[in-house]
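RECORD CONTENTS
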Amino acid sequence: MTDRELDAAGIGDPALRAAYRHCRALNARHGKTYFLATRLLPVERRPAVHALYGFARWADDIVDCLGPGADTGRRAAALTGLRRSLEEGLRDGHSHEPVVLALADTARRYGIEPALFHDFMSAMSADLTVTDYADYAALRGYMHGSAAVIGLQMLPVLGTVVPREEAAPYAAELGVAFQLSNFLRDVGEDLDRGRVYLPADLLAGHGVDRELLRWSRDTGRHEPRITSALREFEALTRGVYRQALPGLAMLAPVSRPCIRTAFLLYRGILDAVARDGYSVLHRRAVVPRRRRAAVAADGLARAVAARLRAGRSPAPCPPHAPAPGTPCPPAAKEVM
């Protein structure tokens, strides 16, 4: 993490600075789309986003990437250790885990509810034993902890021009939309891990089950029934993006370019999947580099304009929700 970002955020303790740098490195290495969008935020807000992402990445790696041959017991023990470290960090502000140290500092600075992190850890634990979901309602229950809470954690960092509780449902929905995009893109990789996130009833409606997915993955052959099911899941995901869209205008103006860029890039995964013929069981669809560059350039222009206007615009709601009855300035219209 650059000294400029840390200095702007008022992070002076050497151990904390090292912890935040560690989180930034995780974001840069694993969350390329997220990292690109984060760079459009004002510098003082970036360390907090890196801390939130770094913790989520660390937990996810325990579940998925602990090492060849790691059994469920070993993964569960590692998650239990992380959970204990999290509880200590949130309670005392201390941890030997850099990602927890940075996360606890961010939670304190922005008043993020500890329950959001506990719900996330519960979802990570579910990934150790739950390998599929009967229907969309069951999947949404899982995604509350794995995705919706990420949007809710981010909201105090981004700031809002409406009371936070008004923006919260849209932030949660956007977190879900991002994860649904990843689920569609990663069907093949998740299958190799023993998991199917596409709802079983949606698949069955097209005559698809886990065995057929496995056959397609192993043989490299396409199956029209699978394509039809993937197309329906894509349509479902686009609907979630539409539900989340009004929330962009509720964010602080200086934060909107970042989230708008992430919105367009993650939604662009759906376009990439469709353009690639729904071949997600055989290869990963990627947003073309030219498209990523164009979206990023537009986001940068919007970010610069927003910062120039910031001195003339009404202040956004502070990190902590305003007192009851205290209105925030009205949201400006956001044009996609």
